[in-house]
User: Which sequence fits this backbone?
């Protein structure tokens, strides 16, 4: 968990078309939007899932009334997760209705989900997994929340047969059909790259229905489903990819990733090894296999794989951390520490600093070095968490809560190893308030034991163990889970199992607070919340739902929050939550969503927004936004986008702007580079140094829209023309953003003021979200 290394997922090699002309692109965008809408409808017509909930216990209604005896108000669903149609069932044309029973608890959580009437193993499992994630406003009896049992019917229906490509009569029609498939595939890849995984899945399902024998498309579908944490569906799609293309250069690796997250370690290792048979120089497979074996404390087996991966991709920071950890475990402490230092020196990503610090802290060695790396990690993250927009929270911003929870826990564990239990408790409790998982719970339990609070420790251990069953994209640290079980057994002996059972219900209630129900309202609303350091009030902003609940903001700000930041920390954290009021209740409940649920919700909202018809959207022609690049700028009159280079696995994405008749250019670039900003700049310098008469006059530190970067003034000659250029470079993790101006020297002076105005307009929507940022029409 603390390494936060999810391995590397490979994409396929489906060929993408060249950038089209502007007129053709406009028609293409309309066609893609239409096909996206059709693909969404297809999911409901070809693979139809409907849900009907019927009370099976006394809930007031036509069959039960207060006159007949005690009956409760029916629970109201606040959020539903639709099941995924299992790939095997889809391919075998299986359909039917699954009837499941469940209990809606007093806190609105779902428990005890089981099949009453089933269809088959895969479909039944899909129905159960979806219903388990539902959230309810609980049923009430005489104004008090009560447990209510419901029966839910989930209908899986397939209508017709998979749509096939229409018959084509000539080469032109065949070319247009192939273009449509490439365009859909390209749009799916773009949706995936911006984190809109639901849209990517919808498009890719459409493509698999048109070209069901294309293994690359099935691989991409599996990759997107893995990103959505729909592991069973991802495995089925990747199995289909392998069936269609047994020599796939990607699918075995991706399937190994799925099994790894499912804790099927032997199956995972087998898939990575199959990928290596297909391609002995696949650095992804070598790296993933080595990291997974490292997690299993099988370092003797892991080291050859990690070393092979590093020989193929030298200076890969995550691999160096894994290699360093294994060397320490194998008794080569000095060599292992040197490898951790190398990883920290070549990467400015906060997760690398955190991972290296955690390796040392977990073994209680070189704590001064661990503290230095932890400080670097938190300093970088603090910059990311400043002035985040609360009006339009993006998935990226909400995901910071996941990361900062891990970083705080590492910091707390360092304090614990130093014997500073006060600071250790502050950081570990804050981490646990944001995110329950076995690692944070085990560490907090140890701290409570050290403080002489065994009962609190037992409660946290039990909840930590129960949290291992929650859906998560992060890999569970099996060591911490096992250690939590051992500590709980010591404290509670034969009562340990009952404590874990009780903890399952308590987990959902740990992030709930209440405020007075002023006006006896019955309503609910979704809020964004910005948590600030102690002494500063939190901020609540109503995003959707009943607008009358906006008046509760003052009460929420003064209530005792179940989530908080460490006492000595100076960061802001963005969260989401749901306020629910019921007329019969004197208190309204505010439930903070776990960070992963908040991210999922934001991504689903993004997917819904991306299906908006183009005709309903109006754009300012002077503003250019590119979600894939991550930059927004204002354009002067007459300046237009003249060329867009989509980018690929190994090439940056570029947007180039110009004015008719002028040789002056303004460019935006997003590049991926595993290394520090200094190393990236040296690489750029080496590239420019090869140009004739290259000259660089100085380097300035610049700050744009919350990011700090470097500014260069450069010139060179080409074909007898001297060119002048200004370049600004900004880095966030392994993503680097370049803003560049270029023109012949004699022309540059004429546009100097225009260029500076464009520089000053640069914004990074990833830090300050705009509600239309991810609109595909842009």
Assistant:
């Amino acid at each position: 968990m603390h390494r936060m290394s999810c391995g590397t997922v490979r994409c396929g090699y489906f060929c993408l078309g060249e950038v089209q002309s502007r007129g053709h692109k406009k028609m293409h965008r309309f066609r893609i939007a239409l096909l996206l809408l059709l693909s969404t409808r297809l999911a409901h017509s070809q693979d139809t899932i409907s849900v009907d909930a019927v009370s099976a216990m006394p809930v007031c209604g036509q069959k039960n009334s207060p006159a007949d005896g005690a009956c409760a108000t029916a629970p109201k669903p606040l959020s539903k997760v639709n099941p995924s149609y299992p790939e095997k069932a889809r391919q075998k044309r299986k359909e039917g209705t699954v009837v499941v029973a469940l209990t809606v608890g007093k806190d609105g959580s779902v428990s005890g989900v089981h099949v009453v009437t089933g269809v088959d193993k895969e479909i039944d499992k899909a129905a159960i997994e979806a219903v388990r994630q539902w959230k309810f406003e609980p049923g009430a009896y005489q104004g008090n929340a009560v447990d209510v049992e419901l029966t839910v019917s989930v209908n899986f229906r397939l209508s017709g047969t998979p749509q096939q490509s229409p018959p084509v009569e000539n080469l032109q029609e065949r070319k247009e059909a192939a273009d449509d498939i490439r365009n859909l595939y390209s749009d799916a890849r773009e949706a995936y790259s911006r984190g809109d995984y639901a849209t990517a899945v919808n498009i890719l399902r459409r493509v698999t229905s048109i070209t069901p024998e294309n293994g690359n498309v099935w691989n991409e579908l599996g990759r997107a489903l893995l990103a959505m944490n729909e592991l069973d569906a991802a495995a089925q799609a990747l199995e289909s990819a392998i069936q269609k293309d047994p020599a796939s250069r990607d699918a075995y690796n991706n399937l190994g990733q799925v099994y790894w997250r499912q804790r099927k370690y032997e199956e995972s290792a087998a898939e990575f090894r199959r990928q290596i048979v297909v391609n002995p120089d696949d650095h992804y497979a070598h790296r993933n296999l080595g990291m997974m074996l490292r997690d299993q404390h099988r370092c003797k087996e892991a080291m050859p794989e990690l070393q092979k991966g590093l020989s193929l991709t030298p200076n890969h920071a995550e691999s160096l951390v894994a290699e360093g950890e294994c060397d320490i475990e194998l008794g080569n402490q000095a060599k292992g520490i040197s490898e951790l230092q190398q990883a920290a020196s070549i990467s400015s990503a906060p997760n690398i600093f955190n991972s290296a610090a955690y390796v040392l802290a977990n073994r209680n060695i070189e704590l001064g070095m661990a503290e230095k790396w932890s400080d670097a990690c938190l300093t970088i993250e603090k910059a990311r968490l400043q002035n985040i927009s609360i009006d339009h929270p993006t998935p990226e911003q909400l995901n910071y809560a996941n990361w900062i929870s891990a970083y705080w826990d590492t910091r707390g564990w360092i304090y614990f190893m130093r014997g500073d239990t006060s600071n250790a408790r502050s950081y570990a409790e804050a981490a646990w308030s944001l995110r329950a998982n076995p690692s944070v719970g085990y560490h907090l339990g140890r701290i409570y034991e050290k403080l002489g609070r065994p009962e609190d420790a037992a409660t946290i251990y039990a909840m930590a163990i129960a949290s291992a069953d929650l859906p998560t994209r992060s890999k569970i640290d099996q060591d911490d889970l096992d250690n939590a079980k051992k500590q709980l057994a010591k404290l509670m002996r034969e009562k340990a199992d009952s404590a874990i059972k009780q903890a399952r219900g308590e987990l959902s209630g740990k992030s709930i607070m209440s405020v007075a129900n002023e006006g006896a309202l019955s309503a609910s609303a979704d809020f964004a919340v910005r948590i600030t350091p102690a002494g500063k009030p939190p901020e609540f902003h109503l995003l959707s739902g009943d607008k009358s609940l906006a008046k509760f903001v003052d009460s929420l700000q003064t209530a005792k929050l179940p989530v908080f930041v460490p006492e000595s920390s100076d960061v802001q954290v963005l969260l989401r939550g749901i306020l629910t009021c019921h007329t019969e209740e004197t208190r309204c409940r505010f439930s903070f969503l776990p960070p992963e649920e908040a991210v999922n919700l934001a991504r689903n909202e993004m997917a819904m927004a991306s299906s908006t018809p183009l005709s309903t959207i109006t754009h300012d022609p002077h503003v250019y936004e590119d979600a894939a690049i991550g930059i927004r700028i204002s354009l002067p009159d007459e300046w237009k986008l003249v060329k867009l280079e989509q980018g690929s696995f190994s090439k940056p994405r570029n947007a180039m702007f110009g004015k008719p008749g002028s040789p002056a250019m303004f460019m935006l670039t997003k590049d991926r580079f595993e290394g520090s900003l200094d190393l990236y700049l040296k690489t750029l310098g080496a590239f420019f140094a090869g140009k004739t008469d290259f000259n660089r006059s100085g380097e300035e530190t610049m700050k744009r829209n919350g990011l700090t970067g470097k500014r260069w003034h450069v010139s060179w000659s080409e074909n007898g023309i001297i060119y002048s250029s200004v370049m600004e470079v900004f880095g966030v993790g392994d993503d680097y953003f370049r803003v560049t101006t270029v023109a012949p020297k004699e022309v540059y002076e004429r546009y100097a003021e225009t260029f500076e105005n464009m520089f000053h307009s640069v914004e990074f929507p990833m830090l300050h979200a705009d509600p239309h940022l991810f609109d595909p029409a842009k």
